[in-house]
Design a protein that fits this description.
The protein is of the alpha/beta class and about 90 residues long. About 35% of the residues lie in helices and about 25% in strands. The chain has 4 helices and 6 strands.
């Protein structure tokens, strides 16, 4: 058997990949009602135990948002941006 068939093949790991911690709108809604918040930042998510210290945060559009919130995060999905602005809130990319 030839050497190239005997040696296992390795994969490819992209060194430029950026990984985000996903947080849904339903989680933001729950956090805002529990702590009576109008502005949610990465520090608030860290304090609630949803993210770790040096993790990047991406807000995803799963769930509904009924409160007017100001949300700060590293990235937003299109559906999340639309839902936050439709509820009268604002977004800020950090």
């Amino acid at each position: 058997m030839p050497l190239q068939r005997r040696v296992p093949k390795g994969g490819f790991k992209n060194i430029n990949r950026v990984e985000y911690k996903a947080v849904n709108l339903s989680t933001l809604e729950k956090l805002a009602t529990e702590k009576n918040l109008e502005k949610i930042t990465v520090a608030d998510l860290l304090q609630a135990g949803l993210v770790r210290k040096r993790q990047l945060v991406k807000i995803l559009g799963d769930g509904t948002l009924t409160k007017k919130l100001e949300v700060e995060a590293n990235a937003f999905s299109k559906k999340a941006e639309e839902a936050i602005t439709a509820a009268g809130g604002t977004i800020a990319k950090v």
